[in-house]
Amino acid sequence: MILLQSHSRFLLQTLLNRVHNIEKGVELDHHWVEFDDVRYHIQVSMKNPHIFLLSVSLPTPSSETIFVCGLPFGAIEAIKAAYGSHVQILDPPRDGFNLTLKINLSKIPANQDQRHAFLVKVASVREVVLGAPLRVILKHLASRTVAPDMDRLVALVHRPKESFFLLPQVDKVTVVYPMRFNDSIDIVLATSFLQEFVEARRTAGLNNTPPCSWSHTPPVELKGVSTDALSANAGFVSFVIFPRHVEGPKLDRTVWSLSTFHAYVSYHVKCSEGFMHTRMRRRVESLIQALGRAKPDPENSKKTSHNRSFQRLSLKDSRTNSFS
Questions:
Q1: Could you check whether the bond before residue 92 is cis, i.e. omega within 30 degrees of 0?
Q2: Which long-range contacts (CB under 8 A, 24 or more apart) does 17-20 make?
Q3: Which of 123, 183, 198, 258 could, after both became Cys, cross-link 7 (CB 3.0–4.6 A)?
Q4: In this structure, are residues 57 and 98 in contact, taking their beta carbons and an 8 Å threshold?
Q5: What would the CATH number be for the domain defined by 9-272?
């Protein structure tokens, strides 16, 4: 199994190149899109080569998801905690984006290791923003409390107009994913993958992992949720997170894994589909080669037929040959 990286590789490489060549004053203006429709835009002008503007557009939230000023709840506090005074939040953000950050590259840490760690954190802005509500809930779980103003059921966006749901409690947090896929083949592969995923949890070496379950029908935790939010063609996956899963450094890994679970499944479904296509192509090629070897060679057939000759014998010659 391959886990997705929390930082954007293209954004990190761009930041590193900019820091190393900051005196050249090259103008930058790049747009790109990453999985789950998260869009980025970076800008650097010739007049201010030290100022790096980063804009981020998040997936369109569904009706049951609540955004505060265009961002998930807790996102502003998470940005300030992650980047401190090195990053400024522009209000309002650039048109068409949920967030615009202004980074002064001349004020980032001078130490090479600290600078690299800071740039990796900037490149992980997706995790900081989209994972902010989940981080708030899991931090309360680590202290075995529930936020006083928290709803019984919390919906968090992870794909365009699609949400997953959390049921916070003092001793556990239940996370439920309605799994949706557009392609019929993806639905079949994802259903098989998720069933095997649940079975793998029962092996001896994975006893400490979060309990996992899968079902065709919505679990009881989603009672009262709108019908549109429960339209899942690949079933529902549920995880139960306990305080031991969010202790210390485990928190970051748990937040990222839960935030990108659907993308994780989609990635492996597409890899499985590509692997099967490759195997089928190789099988077809081997069958074509076998048929090619079994087909008679027309040149050899002509040579064989030309070499055959028949000689008419007289009655006397035939008797001579028979007695000899």
A1: yes
A2: 18/44, 18/52, 18/105, 19/105, 19/108, 19/115, 19/119
A3: 123
A4: yes
A5: 3.30.1460.20
Report the length, in residues, of the chain: 324
In this predicted model, what pLDDT tens digit does every residue of 130-169 receive, in sequence order? 999 999 999 999 999 988 888 889 999 988 888 999 999 9
What backbone torsions phi and psi does residue 145 show, to the nearest 5 degrees? -140, 170
SS3 state at 289: helix
- Helix 132-142 to helix 250-259 angle (10° resolution) is 140
For 30-66, what is each residue's pLDDT tens digit? Answer: 999 998 889 999 999 888 888 999 999 999 888 888 8
Beta bridge partners of 177: 237
CA–CA gap between residue 298 and residue 276 (Å, rounded): 36
Per-domain residue ranges of the chain: 9-272
Cα distance between residue 283 and residue 3, in whole Å: 30
- Token pair of 74 as six digits: 């807790």
Cα–Cα dist 91/82, whole Å: 18
- Under-50 pLDDT residues of the chain: none
Written as one string, the DSSP assignment of 31-99 is EEEEGGGEEEEEEE-SS-TTEEEEEEEPPPP-TT--EETTEETTHHHHHHHHHGGGEEE-SSPPTT-SE
Q: Which two tokens stand for residue 69?
A: 């000023």
First CA to last CA distance, the chain: 81
Q: What kind and span of H or E run contains 13?
A: helix 9-20
Residues 6+ apart with CB under 8 A from 35: 4, 263, 266
- Residue 268, C-beta contacts closer than 8 angstroms, at least 6 positions apart: 1, 2, 193
Three-state SS for 163?
Answer: strand
pTM score, two decimals?
0.79
